[in-house]
Amino acid sequence: MSDIRFELPSDLALLEPVTDYLTKRIEQAWFMPVDRCLSLALALREALVNAITHGNHDDPSKLVRITAEVSRHQARFTVEDEGVGFNVNDIPHPRDPDNLLKSSGRGVLLIRSVMDETKYNDRGNRLSMIKRRASLLKEEPMDRLPPHTK
Predict the structure, then answer these.
(1) What is the H or E stretch that residue 117 is in?
(2) In degrees, to the nearest 5, what angle opens at C-alpha 127 toward C-alphas 46 and 41?
(3) pTM
(4) All domains of the chain in start order, with CATH
């Protein structure tokens, strides 16, 4: 098992290097081509955006802690911010007609749709996620999905 830990300031410029690094580690550990890991990278990026933007309110003095435990069969990620937290059940559903045109509010849905397990702590400032290698193998790679049609 491989353990990875980051403690970063709340800076959106760090999203790409961190998600690229984590995704690369998954690709290597699971012998996966990059196209198989795009959805995982997107979910990790969204979890980090939420921690930086909504949790820490883009305050660079507040930290985001990321851990990744990668085994042959699964990857476990934790993203924790220093914000006050929130109740995930209070988030308006993004598919509700009143929310369809809002510019945000889809991140939690995206994360839940990609990851096999998600759990917030009681305070709501730490998200734990699990992705199993077997479920990633069953997914259609994102670059092979059919184009969106109306």
Answers:
(1) strand 117-120
(2) 35
(3) 0.86
(4) 2-139 (3.30.565.10)
